[in-house]
Design goal:
The chain is built from 20 helices and no strands. With 415 residues, it is an all-alpha fold. It folds into two domains: 14-180, no CATH class; 203-403, no CATH class. Helix 8 packs antiparallel against helix 11 (182-221) and helix 13 (244-256) packs antiparallel against helix 15 (289-310). The longest helix is centred in the middle third of the chain and has 40 residues, at 182-221. It is elongated and about 120 Å long. It starts with 18 loop residues before the first helix and ends in a 12-residue tail after the last helix. 31% of the residues are buried. It binds zinc ion. The site of zinc ion has 7 residues, from loops.
Length: 415
C-alpha cells in the first residue's frame, strides 16, 4: 500500500474520488501521461489479460478483484473502480500490482510473498519493537516501489540525466521519491523483520511447549482420579453423576498440551511460514496453566462430592451389611477421605460389586411392603403390585445404564 495521502479524496468520502484520474496516474506513473477513457479501458484490459495467466494466489485474487473494472466500458470505468476499491490509494496499488504481474512476474511474486508474510505474522502487544519493524516493512514493500524501480532502471539506461530529474519528484498515489533503490531498501526492512520475528517465534514455540509438557504430566497424573470419578459416577444409586464436563475438559486438555515437535528444519520453515505448520501456535499465546489448574481443582471437588455421598449414613448403613473385606477396607478409605488410596483400590471388580450391592439393597427396600403384605396374607391389590413392579423396572433400567458408563481406559491409567 502506498503511504502518500491522496489529494483528490478524503478517506471519509471514498465515493467522491476521481477514479479516472487515479487510474490514468497509476497506469502511466512515473511518467504521468494523460489518458482518454478508451485508452484507460484498453490498457486495463490488456494488463488484466496478461496477469490472468499468472498462477500465484495473490495474482489470482487481484485478477478476480479487478474483473468488474476489466469488464467495464469507457463510461462505466469510474463506477467499476469504486466497486473494486473504495480507497484511491488501494485502487492505485492494485493497478501497480497488475502492471507488476503483467510485466515482471518474478518481482511481483517476491513482493506478494513479502506482503503475505507481513500480513500473516502475528505480533502481540507485548512486542512493540517488533511491531514497529513490521510497520516499517509494510510501509516500504509495495508494487508501486517495484514499478518505480523498474521504470527508473529502464529510463536510466536511456537517459541518465532525465532519470535524476524524475527521481527528485514526489507524487501522490505512490512512493516515487528520491531513493534510487527503494526495492532494495524495502527488502532489507523485510529481511530484518523476518529475521527477528522468526527467532522470537522459534524461542517462544520451544518455551511454550516445554511449559505445556509439564502441564501434560500433571494431567496424566490426575488420570487415576478421572477413572475413579467415572467409576463412582456409574453407581447410580448414589445420585446424579458429577463432574462430567470436567472429565471431558480433562481429556481435551490432554490433547491440547501434547507437545509439538516441529523438526530440525524449523528455522528454515519459518522463512516462509509465520507460524508452526503443525500446531499453528500464535506468538505470545497464553498457555493452558490456568485451565489445567481449574480442571484439577474441579476434579478433586467432584471426587470429594462422591465420597461424601458414600460416607452418608444411609449408604454406609447399606454397605456395612456386606461381609466382604474389600468393602470394609473401601469404607475405611471413604471415611478418611483418602483420595489417593481410593484411586488405587477402586477397580472395576470392586465398583461392580458395590453397584450390585447397592442395587440389591434398593430392590429389597422397594419390595419390602409387598413381602410384608404377602406375609400378612392381605387382599390382592393389583394396582399397588403393578406400581411396585414399574418402580422396580425403573431402578433396573437406571442401574444397567449406569453400569454402561465405564472409564474410557479399562486398564491402568495412561502414563
Ligand atoms: Zn508447533
Amino acid at each position: 500500500m502506498p503511504q502518500s495521502p491522496t489529494p483528490t479524496a478524503s478517506s471519509n468520502a471514498p465515493e467522491t474520488y476521481d477514479a479516472l484520474e487515479v487510474l490514468a496516474f497509476a497506469l502511466t506513473a512515473p511518467n504521468q501521461r494523460e489518458l482518454s477513457s478508451a485508452e484507460i479501458r484498453d490498457r486495463i484490459r490488456e494488463l488484466h489479460e496478461k496477469a490472468g495467466r499468472r498462477r500465484h494466489d495473490a495474482c489470482r485474487d487481484l485478477v478476480e478483484r479487478l474483473a468488474p473494472l476489466a469488464g467495464a466500458d469507457e463510461g462505466a470505468l469510474a463506477d467499476a473502480a469504486h466497486l473494486c476499491q473504495t480507497e484511491p490509494a488501494a485502487l492505485a496499488e492494485d493497478i501497480y500490482a497488475l502492471r507488476s504481474f503483467a510485466s515482471d512476474p518474478k518481482g511481483a511474486v517476491a513482493v506478494a510473498e513479502m506482503q503475505r508474510y507481513l500480513t500473516e505474522a502475528f505480533v502481540p502487544k507485548s512486542e512493540p519493537e517488533l511491531a514497529l519493524d513490521r510497520a516499517i516493512a509494510i510501509g516500504q514493500v509495495s508494487f508501486s516501489v517495484l514499478i518505480a524501480d523498474r521504470e527508473r532502471a529502464q529510463r536510466g539506461r536511456q537517459s541518465p540525466a532525465k532519470e535524476r530529474a524524475v527521481a527528485e519528484e514526489e507524487v501522490a498515489y505512490g512512493v516515487f521519491v528520491t531513493d534510487p533503490q527503494r526495492m532494495r531498501t524495502a527488502e532489507l526492512a523485510f529481511n530484518h523483520f523476518r529475521g527477528v520475528y522468526a527467532r522470537r517465534y522459534e524461542d517462544f514455540h520451544a518455551a511454550y511447549w516445554t511449559a505445556s509438557s509439564r502441564l501434560h504430566a500433571r494431567l496424566l497424573e490426575a488420570g487415576r482420579e478421572v477413572q475413579a470419578l467415572t467409576r463412582l459416577n456409574s453407581l447410580v444409586e448414589l445420585g446424579a453423576a458429577v463432574g462430567e464436563s470436567t472429565i471431558s475438559a480433562h481429556e481435551e486438555l490432554i490433547a491440547a498440551t501434547t507437545a509439538c515437535e516441529p523438526g530440525a528444519d524449523f528455522a528454515s520453515v519459518l522463512k516462509t511460514a509465520t507460524a508452526c505448520p503443525a500446531c499453528h501456535l500464535r506468538l505470545g499465546a497464553a498457555d493452558h496453566a490456568e485451565a489445567v489448574g481449574a480442571v484439577l481443582k474441579r476434579l478433586s471437588q467432584s471426587v470429594e462430592q462422591q465420597l461424601s455421598r458414600l460416607s452418608s449414613v444411609a449408604v454406609r448403613a447399606i454397605l456395612e451389611r456386606s461381609s466382604d473385606p474389600r468393602v470394609e477396607r473401601f469404607l475405611k478409605v471413604v471415611q478418611a477421605a483418602q483420595i489417593t488410596t481410593l484411586t488405587e483400590i477402586l477397580d472395576d471388580e470392586l465398583v461392580g460389586y458395590l453397584r450390585r450391592f447397592l442395587l440389591e439393597a434398593r430392590i429389597s427396600t422397594l419390595l419390602e411392603p409387598i413381602f410384608d403384605h404377602v406375609q400378612q396374607g392381605g387382599a390382592n391389590d393389583e394396582a399397588a403390585t403393578r406400581e411396585a413392579l414399574e418402580k422396580l423396572a425403573d431402578v433396573l433400567h437406571r442401574a444397567i445404564r449406569g453400569a454402561g458408563q465405564r472409564p474410557s481406559d479399562e486398564g491402568e491409567p495412561a502414563r
